[in-house]
Design goal:
Structural class: alpha/beta
Strand order of the largest sheet: 6-7-5-4-8-9-11-10
Number of helices: 10
Strand content: 15-25%
Order of helices and strands: EEEHHEHEHHHEEEHEHEEHH
Amino acid sequence: MVDFELVVLKGGARSIKSLAHGETMHVGTDPVTEAAQLHVAQQGIAERAAASSHPFVVWDVGLGPAANAIAVLEVLGGRGLSAELHSFEISTEVLEFALLHAAALGYLNGREQLVRELLDAGECRPEPGLLWKLHRGDFSKGPGAVPAPWAVMFDPYSPARNPEMWNLGTFSHLHGAAHPEGCTLTSYTRSTSARVTMLLAGWYVGAGVATGQKEETTVAATRPGLLENPLGPAWLSRVRSSANSMPMRGRIPVRGPISPEDYALLESHPQFT
């Protein structure tokens, strides 16, 4: 059974649809443009890596067809920087499918051998100073022993299809693993429930840039000074009135309004006090 298919996006670029999940990846614009806008530029990855006196560590949570990873390599390459890109994925089937269609997708052109090396050996070096490493397994059970990130690209399937990746435990793991000097996280979602979950896991949360068909995305950080547009009191009011603001817990999706107890915890978050 074929689990994926190529699809043509509005602008003519091609992307991949998961038939099992019923979701198209990087919908709205070509995959690398979305990755560059949503993750790379929004987190200032190139600038922060250039200013770092240590290897700059990026986590790519949900490697998928590697568009986000390639966008990072593109912006860091050729600058003599020291950086590590750690990609996490439970199954590499979609990346293997993407390799078979590298010419149609475009962004993998010229990088096929690099991706094959990553799949075969678990790591590769696109150039001196840059390490790309693959971590296979269920990230929701914990990331394992991996260097602490300054930046996280969070891009699993949606909460409806992959609830365990969006629950309180996963965002708590991420917060606990973040670099103590400060870490940012970007995601395509603007879900109230997802944002509540991030906040209850200890993150500071803000509104992110528009990209593709999404009018707004989400940026989170371990320190408030890293956010340009933090959520404020008006958003808290929306949480209280929303029918789907319950934080996500466990591995089964449950929808509903936030409980008084969780709302009290949210209201006492330093972001709102």
